[in-house]
TrEMBL record:
One of its GO terms (cellular component) is membrane. It comes from the Eukaryota. The keyword DNA-binding does not apply. Keywords: Membrane, Transmembrane, Transmembrane helix, Transport. Pfam families: MFS_1. SUPFAM superfamilies: MFS general substrate transporter. It is a multi-pass membrane protein. This is Major facilitator superfamily (MFS) profile domain-containing protein. The chain crosses the membrane at residues 21-43, 118-139, 163-186, 193-211, 255-278, 284-304. It is found in: Membrane.
Amino acid sequence: MHCLCLAYVADHVRPRRRAAAFALLSGVSAAGFVSGTLTARFLATSSTFQVAAAVATAAALYLRAFLPDSGGVSCSDDDQACDPLLQASSSSASSSDEELSPRLPPHKAGLPSLSDMLTLLTGSLAMSGAATITFFYSLGEHGLQTALLYYLKAQFGYSKDEFANLLLIVGAAGMLSQLTVMPILAPILGEEILLIVGLLGGCTHVFLYGIAWSYWVPYLSAAFVILSAFVHPSIRTNVSKNVASNEQGIAQGCISGISSFGGILGPLIFTPLTAWVLSETGPFNFKGFSVLCAGICTVIAFIISLRMRGAQSSACKKSIVQQEQA
């Protein structure tokens, strides 16, 4: 469902403003997570599912009543009728983001096949890089989520309530970052720089967990979510700018599928690894080893983002030179 929301936003927001729009969408989603977690504390277990179903029904009714179908028509930078979500930027440039980005051929009618999706993901450097970064970052992210509770309990004696409080801090930091910080920085820095900054913050976030030397260090680590919250909206923006208007849903769905695949592999890999490290027969007395392994996945994603940034800059320079010579 999230990928469809991203495709809908892409149809109604100019490419230059999509990073800020995707950040707002992710921030609202994070706000829902924080609100739901807080609400669940005051509800009986049997009532939690009923309230969740009622809220989901209300969302479906709102969707049907107030959101018109975009019809697959995407906004361009020159379309003055777009951007109902954000104010238009006053800056002007000689070429739009869509002109500098490699475009994929239009998708044929009918249901996409697996080969169509592979062609979509490998059709440009930006798409293949975004897919690879998504996989490794999701693998590390879900690996951290798998190992963190057991690690904090073994290392510092964290209870479930303390772990829930830590998750609330993480969710609140991500929400504030995506709702306030990223919409301001996105038009200035661009999604490529924000992706690199976010991955660097994600690496710091995970490694501080792994080498935590005191009870309060995990709370310090949670503060770096303010930076790591840039990652997913930046990836989605990069993907959105590199596909045609009728491929927004397919592309975002492919990225969501890759993220889910990393989410499946994460517990399968890090659950036995964490159990092995924390057991009495562990190979060494370093309880944060599995958390650091999750951090290595984030480092790989960070390195790929640096290489992708350099390759895209070179490609853009060549394109500009060719246009000037023509």
